[in-house]
């Protein structure tokens, strides 16, 4: 599996949309994620793991606590991870359950978690096939077994 693009919004320390384009690395297979303590390095790995497995990389981190404390209440938390696997392109989308302001009246409402896996013909398309809900977990599990993850 080769990471191609990671988009995080209201995730970890990132209150706004952040995009990491790993294609800029070209054919390099080794790279370093560095920065000062608290700058969000682990959150990058957490976002990839959350997209693929539905939980962050570290076992001590709760998936329900991945929402950024700094995000605007109306900004949805979401992760989009695009990768190549055996010469095919995939996009995984996850949006965890979280509280948002009600559209009418005061207070908060809880949004449903969403997830899908799309096989792409190219990276800029919307996906040829989407598997929703538990089926995405089954599909990802199958790909993880093939890759050895």
Q: Give the DSSP E fraction (strand runs of 2 or more residues).
A: 25-35%
CATH superfamily: P-loop containing nucleotide triphosphate hydrolases
Instruction: State the separation between the terminal residues, measured CA to CA.
Output: 9 Å
Q: What's the total count of β strands?
A: 8
Query: How many helical stretches?
Result: 2
Q: In sequence order, what are the helices and strands, one letter per element?
A: EEHEEEEEEH
Please name the defining characteristics of this protein.
alpha+beta, 2 helices, 32% strand, 6-stranded antiparallel sheet, two-stranded antiparallel sheet, single chain, 149 residues, Rossmann fold
What's the arrangement of secondary structure elements?
Layout: E1 2-9, E2 18-21, H1 41-53, E3 78-85, E4 88-95, E5 98-101, E6 108-111, E7 114-120, E8 129-132, H2 134-147
Antiparallel strand pairs: 1-2, 1-3, 3-4, 4-7, 5-6, 7-8
